[in-house]
Amino acid sequence: MAIIIKTDAEIALMREAGRITATVLEILTSSVKPGMRTDELDIIAEKEPKRFGAIPSFKGYRGYPASLCVSVNEEIVHGIPDKRILLEGDIVSIDYGVIYKGFQGDAARTVAVGKVSAQSRKLMEVTEGALKAGIIKAYKGNRLGDVSAAIEEYAESRGYTVVREYTGHGIGRNMHEDPQIPNTTKSLLGMMRGTGPVLKKGMTLAIEPMVNIGGWETKVDSNGWTVRTRDGSLSAHFEDTIAITDGEPEVLTSV
Ligand code: MF3
Ligand code: CO
User: What is the pLDDT of residue 72?
Assistant: First the structure.
């Protein structure tokens, strides 16, 4: 497979898909309250994009059963919404995407349920910072490994680990396009600074670091989806869909 370069007209549609994704994601994150069931979020995720002429993209993707992913505390990604009740002090990662006029948006945020510990707040801040550190390296002429290395350095220099077995991805008419975007320079899926594909105007990328307090290792639940830290330590996840331009990277998943 090859990296698909988008025209300006296609980027304009992805900007709309991104805006709708970010708008609904903001509704979702601001709905999070202690005592809420995670499957209440799925109802919002299903319904809200219709107001904008969009549909949620996750349901049915490789058999995934819901319209968003809700991953609590030591869950990293791909948590399936269910009857679980969110408790004060939990942190919850919400991953969400829509399809609008054939184009995809994909974004994630981790938020606090009520009042959380200082260590949880710090983890969320560092993960969001790692995403931003990656995005600012995503400009024309740079290489993909420069993005990976920046994410890793930001998180590791602050004492955190970066998940190695899951990556970001190109995005467009499909949720997952080439290239894979590692958040680390280590492991088989890693990419060193100064290596990897050269970034070009019109590339659209979903960058999505997953950062842990403990080890980077993961395991998957018997449901085949929920990914959690192997050591049970807390994890956070931030994701944005961006476009490579002639200048600064453009964050498409913003309201
Ligand atoms: N949004 C996730 C990603 O960033 C994918 C969700 S998997 C799904 O790649 F099956 F839930 F759609
Ligand atoms: Co993604």
Answer: 99
46 Cα: distance to centroid of ligand 1 (angstroms): 15
Position 254 in a domain = no
Name the β-bridge partners of 211: 162, 236
Q: What CATH code is carried by the domain that includes residue 215?
A: 3.90.230.10
Report yes or no on 2 lying in a domain: no
How is residue 93 written in tokens? 């990662």
The tens digit of pLDDT for each residue in 175-228 reads 999 999 999 999 888 899 999 999 999 999 999 999 999 999 999 999 999 999
Top mutation candidate among 59, 106, 242 for ligand 1, by most atoms within 8 Å of CB:
106
> What span, in angstroms and rounded, lies between the C-alpha atoms of 69 and 80?
6
Q: How far is the CA of 58 from the centre of ligand 1 (A)?
A: 6
DSSP conformation class of 164:
S
Residue 1 lies in a domain: no
Q: Which domain holds residue 120?
A: 8-248
